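forwarding from the other thread:

> can someone predict this with iron/sulfur cluster?

sure thing
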Amino acid sequence: MSSTMSHPQNQAMEPVGIGAGALTGHDVHREAPKGPQGLPPSNFYAPFRPKEIAGAVALIGYLVVLCAVWAAMMIFGDWAIVGLFRVLGASLPAAELWGNAIANILFVVLAFVMLLATLLTMGERKWSAFIQDRIGPNRARLPGLKNHAFWGIPHILADVGKMMTKEEVVPAMGNQTLFHLAPAIAFAPAVILFAVIPLSPDFTLWGEHLHIGVAPHLNQGLLYIFAIASIGVLGTSLGGWASNNKYGLLGAMRASAQMISYEVTLGLTLVGLMLIFGTLRLDSMMSQQTGHLFGFLPNWGVFYQPLAIVAYFAAASAEIKRAPFDLPEGDSEIVGYFIEYSGLKFGIYMIGEFVEVVVFAGLFTTLFFGGYHLPWGEGWLAGHLGPTWLAGLQVLTFLAKTVFFCWLSLAVRWTYPRFRYDQVMNLGWKLLLPASIANVALTGVVILAGGMHGAAIMGIVELVILLAWVVGAVGVRRSGKETLLPTESAAASEHG
Amino acid sequence: MPIDTVTIREPDYGPRERLYLRELVRGLLITSRHFFRNLFGERDLNSEVGERQGANLIATVSYPEERRAYPPGYRGMHRLVPREDGKPRCVACYMCATVCPAQCIYIEAGEYDQEGIEKYPTRFEIDELRCIVCGFCVEACPKDAIRMDTGTHSPAVLSRPLATFDKEALLKGPAVSHPTDAITYGKSRRGEPLKH
Amino acid sequence: MLEQTMASESAPAEQDALSVEQELPTEPMTINLGPSHPATHGTVRIVAELDGEIIQKADVEIGYLHRGFEKSCENATWAQVLPYTDRLNYVSPLLNNVGWAMAVEKLLGIQDPERSQYIRVIAGEVSRMADHLTMLGAMSLELGGFAPFLYGMEARELLYDRITELCGARVTTAYTRIGGVANDLPPGWTDKLKGTLVKVAELREEMDKLLSKNRIFIDRTRGTGVITREDALDFGFTGPCLRATGVDYDVRKAHPYLVYDRFDFTVPLGTRGDNYDRFLLRVEELRQSERIILQALDQLPDGPVIVDDWRIALPPKAQVYGSIEGVMAHFKLIMQGPQIPPGEAYQYTEGGNGELGFYIVSNGQGKPYRVHVRAPGFPLLSALGHIVQGHMLADLIPTFDSINMIGGEVEQ
Ligand code: SF4
Ligand code: SF4
């Protein structure tokens, strides 16, 4: 058969004859060369070229500039709104109180959280694509700018357009009220959670006392977080139940069981931190995470509570239903609690999930990774730049850390398979919960015995053990041929 | 005969694996290696995906800007092979229509008055929607008159009748002649050159 | 669902919790997985009765992909049946092609040339690798691990590229012929294949590393979807799913066909017959297939790739274009198809998922009188309900994947 076919490219160049070569009929390829013995080398471990490293540096620089613009916007926007209140005749304390609050609602909750969450929708698709050797979305273009894909960001606009114009199907036999209400119940707590997270210390800009963060001075900051976070489960389970769909119901059941179970762990993992910092206020936790341990380690929560970090990461992932804990969605099994949702309501569930990721990353940063604090050189910078500029830099630091933990959360999501329902429960109740209780007890004892210093030593010992574990994980054989090597066939057992 | 078998040895599964963390970090390292290579590596656009070089591991061929050439021998869209004078080589022998498992070739034969070859198709239609692209018609043709070497696939159409390609649409591509053809093509029945 | 809710409301409040639980009328929830469901690649419907998340009963319903393969074959010549077989197991069509050609050859009592046998082995093993990679990827995908899935797909596509170069199509290969194969290996193909195998091996090891020691994956697969050796034999399991239970039945070894007896490869066996074993076993079979291909490429002899018998195989084109004998033989073969003597034959080969058997009956009139395919997927699928009974809904998915049912061959 091949004898009667010719290469498409030949065809364009010259008339293809079934010439002399082809007249041998079936044996046309008889002279096919036998390949050299041994296999060709692979490019799998090809190193980066200088050009690519330059590209990496440029990209990071670009991101830093973007974040700087963002941070500047928050700071100056804050200042401008306080100024506006002054112009309108408010006294300075009143203007600062109201101006800060309104500016932060605008800039932190709407601009920062929502913008980051929106970008994450694309980030998830793009990053997962890179993890999976794909390019990711790059087709939507901005009008007039047809030659650049802008890393897929125009797809966000296209998505929004799609979500808003899609038909909304409402299951006739479902509970209509709850069905409409559920996405809002799921979405709202996610957004307002961010209120207590401080993005910068208090600073003074041109005579006005400012801070970035809606209500970082709240006394019961951590309790607020637990309280609000537990509302989220209502949105999910009501949404699944109200759609009158069996899959939705299964998803809702899984969601409520999982989220309620993990709330306990989530709370207990942070008790250790409360003991160490002696406060529930996030801003005072922040101000305690300055300075250095033993002169060089940043004085961050991670060095006091490494075990809690692991447990918290797992519990928080379960709480926001991200993989590997995404079984309420379980797309290949039960499709998810939002199976009946379409249009913008579905979009709200989706964006709510990303808002949760941002909030989770922000909390993680705040509690364990020093929040807005730079790891080193803060004192030096404060001396040279002044506290105001330093505050700007600190907002930037917070952004960078948050984005990194968003990335980590997504990378985890795209790497691991998901748990089974009962395994999640086992993990939560039998492993994470006892571990976090043990952690609380241990921390308490150590603090009683050795104070903060003792806690730091305990944390670092824990961390070293953990790291040894991880390094052990990295160092093992790269070939991975562990089940059976071809040469082992000689030792194969014989069966009849 | 004893069979050479071996029981698969399972990977070690000790307390380290049981505590999740180690394998999770290992997995994360694999995926983030892909991530950073693909993020920063320069993409090689070689359409032969397996032979791409460089750090970037992205395997996408971004159609339609990048296209993979169909390999030689790819069974694509049919064509009726023309003679040197532009008429189809086909002699309406019905072999292709007979062998076609999908019965998607329809031929009506006519007669040339003057040529040494008497039969030719007045209608020759292939329903590309029915076609299962087996290539049997190409193999069956005793005149090398039908080929699937166009290097394209049958195009998408807006309605089903449009997927039936007639003789005019199929007759395309470079002309082909064989040494055995010279006796008859372009000659009258008595072997005299034809006047066009 | 609604009944449950109402029942719990109407339960008398004064009763203690235990008796409420005893008297609470519950009834199993029936859910339809499929025919259109994210996990049913291939169209199949599973009607599952759930008690909470436990499957009490799972009925597998097929018929959504039925195409009348066996009846169609009775209306085609022996040669024309070949492209139909592509559509049986559409993930590894070359193995079906080989199976069909060998069945007809058995009835004819001929052997294809040695080079053709080697090419069949190579093409078949490449197909088997594609099949296994697809299954491994799909299993990982449906457990939520998307990255391993796409690594597997990437490897599979690389193999499909080689198949395209060999046969002219990715999936609708129609490559073998009665008495040989359609065309010889394209120039330079063997080198390309070797390069591809390296790449595939790397991707395979990455998949393996991402999954096989991951506790989440192990928890999801180990001990789920278990079938005992006896049950597996009773249901008629073959292939990887049977070998995962520890039965050493591989047609390539037990009844060597083609030139399989010339290669050094081992048959991996499992012990527990669960999803994890089926996964590891296929990873190992990928390695063995690679070994077979490399050995076959080294041993590949020269020679014709199809028998030189004009009653069975088409004459060379030179003869058809240039000689009256050639064109007459060609004409007769096309018009009537190869004439197969009356009789019946059962030829079995090792398909992607087990023993792929073609039972054919000829009455000597140019067309099959009866064709039956022993599709390896059918017994596997019919045991699904038995395997998952009493397990969780979430276990159904990896089990469904690891038995690797292919709609096309289950429903012919
Ligand atoms: S390729 Fe096959 S199905 Fe298509 S027209 Fe030719 S013989 Fe018929
Ligand atoms: S087999 Fe060839 S010559 Fe005969 S009808 Fe078909 S295309 Fe024409």
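Residues 35 and 41 of chain A are 14 Å apart (CA to CA). thats all i got for now
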